[in-house]
Each structure stands twice: as structure tokens, then as C-alpha cells.
Amino acid sequence: METSISEFGREVFDAGVTVFSVGDAGESAYVIESGCVEVLVGHQPNQQRVAVLAQGAMFGEVALLDRQARTATVRALIPTTLIRIDRTHVEELLGRADPVIQYLLRLLLERFRNKTQGDAAASAAQIPALAEPSPPTDLHAAAVRTLSLAHDLSDAIDRGQLDLYYQPIVRLVDGSLAGFEALVRWRHPQLGVVRPDEFIPLAEKTGLVHRIGQWVLKRATTDWPLLRQRCAATSQGAPFISVNLSAPELCNPGIVESIRDCIASSHIAASELRIELTETVIISSVELVSSAIAQLRTMGVGIALDDFGTGYAGLDYLQTLPFTAIKIDRAFVAQMHDSERSFQIIKSALELSRLLGIATVAEGIEDAKTGAMLASMGCNYGQGYHYARPLPLQDLLGAGTPT
């Protein structure tokens, strides 16, 4: 999310007023909107000016990031307006950053501190020495794990470490098996099963998501003829296989052709394939995504809006994009018995879908009571541990699944 300057506080300093001094806590950084300041090292009466900063310059950011005390004094030379950037806001942004980036930033700050302390000690011996910070153990471990996974992920496909699990999707009106959602899993030889929410974002950042996406599409459409045999074709609709696509995959200019090739080589009907997209995917590039969706719908491929209700633009997308289904997020389903708000959100989503002629799928159904209530409310499909956990193909073909 982009943050405008209006979200930050403004502070005005008259000429000669100190913004902060050596030893103060570094709770914020500043951008000079107008005016100028001087940067002084040492303590009075032996302070030395080391810089003069004018409009557009930033200062105080190092202490803000590494939580160390101020090592300089900053004072306004003329009436000066500063835009304050609070620590809490920056730490929130850092918390969403890649662990490797966080760790590298910490190391660079530590080296910067060590260098500047050495320089300052030579020119102003009275500046107190600061304790040398230790690298954060948890952050170090997270960074090492991320780097290791990124390296290993590049070989995962070639070494046969990826697999697809399929979670059954049932028709709530009678419990018959309508289809499956394909979910990729990574069986790391040392770490065991790595969660998709850990390695898929990593694959997106490294560009490997395109290879993984192609593998998932090909594998799912190849497996579908066998899985289809376990599904029941009824007057309520033909069976289908759902595959999730990420933002980089759907924005790939060749994605539509790739899907067309997978459908052709597997000899399946395009209408039996459903692509699931989240709002995040659409927001990443509305123009490219809209074009791809339109082409896929022309082919007959179904398009589902995943995690409906958790974003802020779902209704707008239902108006502008030709979705054939929405998936009601498990967060609402889990609370529908105890939260009137969750219940009403689900009720409204189901009514809207009915009016628009869009199918509905409820995720995260954990018990028969929830499934029965959703069916009575008009929800078409459901999936969750009450019906079945995601399973590999061989287990599904050899085990009893809903029929």
C-alpha cells in the first residue's frame, strides 16, 4: 500500500531550535519539507558541524531502523518544516519485507554504525561508544532458510520433489462429488513438506513461479481424466478441476496459449477447467489480467474469484470481469454460527451470486451442521476437512471419496 505524506505528522522548528540531540531515542526520521538544518557531532561546547541539509533531505533514519540512540545533534538553521516518519510505520513495512532483505538491512546498519563510530571517535573522542548490536537470531535463521529454499526450489521440479494434492469439492445439495482443487506441495528432502504460503511467494520473487505454474497446469489437466471418473455429472453442472494462478503467471503473455495447449494435449473440455484468482492477482495488473480472463472465457474455461469478501474490490470485479464462480473465504464460514456479521456477509454474497448467475463455493467447512446450513442458504458447492483433506492422486484413486 502506498502511503501519502498526509499520513505523516508535520513539525515546525524556529531557527536555532534543536530537533534531537546525541543520546536521544531514535523514534522517528524526518524529511525536510522546507528550510534547512545542521548536523553536529560531539557534545557542547565542542560540537562540530558535519553537514547542512536542505529541502528534500532525510535524516534520523538509521536510529529509527536499528533502535540505537542518536549519535548526532540536529538543529534548525532557519524556520524549518519537517515531515515526521514514525518508527511504528516503518517497522510495519519491514515486517512485510522478505527476511533476506531485512537481514541484509540489519547487517548494513551494523557496519555503518561501526564505521561512523570509529570515524567519530577519531574526530570527537567525547562521543560515547555504543554497544555493538548482535545479529537477530530469528531473523538470521529466517534469512538463511529463505536463501536455502530459493536455491533448492530451482531443482525441485527436475528432482521430482513437487507433487499435487487434490481436495474434493462437493455439491452441497446432495453431497455428490463435483470436482477437485489442485494444490501444489513441495517435499523437501531435508525439511519435509514446505508450506505453499512459504514457497509460492518465494517462487514469485525468483521467477520460478512460471515453471511451477506450467508444471501444475500440465499435471492437473493430465490427472483430471482419472479424477473425473470419481465425480458425478448431474443436472446441476459438469465436474471440474480448479487450478490456482498467481499474479506473475496470469500476467505472462503466453499464459492463455499454455492453458489452451494443456487442454488440447489432455483431451479435456475447456469447461471442465476452472482457474482460481485472488484480488491480489487482479490488482497486480488489471489490464493484463482482464485480457487473459476474457480470452479464457471465450475458450470456455471457468474463472473463480477466490477468497471473496476479504479484499476491498470484490464487488467491482464482479461487475467488470466475467467470473463464473466466487469462493467464500473460510474466515467467514468458520464464524457463521457465532458471528451475525459473518452470517450476513455470506447470506448477501450468496444472494448476489444468485442474481448474477454465478456459482458459489464455500471453503473451510469443518462439520455437517455448517454444510447443511450453507446448502439451505443456496450455496452450490463446498470443500473442507468435513468432506476430505487434500490427498495425492494415488490415495484418491484408491480411497473412498464422496460420490
Automatic annotation (TrEMBL):
Which CDD domains does the record cross-reference, listed alphabetically?
CAP_ED (cd00038), EAL (cd01948)
One matching Pfam family is: EAL
Q: Which residues form the Cyclic nucleotide-binding domain?
A: 1-111
Outline the extent of the EAL domain: 146-403
This chain belongs to the protein called: EAL domain-containing protein (Putative c-di-GMP-specific phosphodiesterase class I)
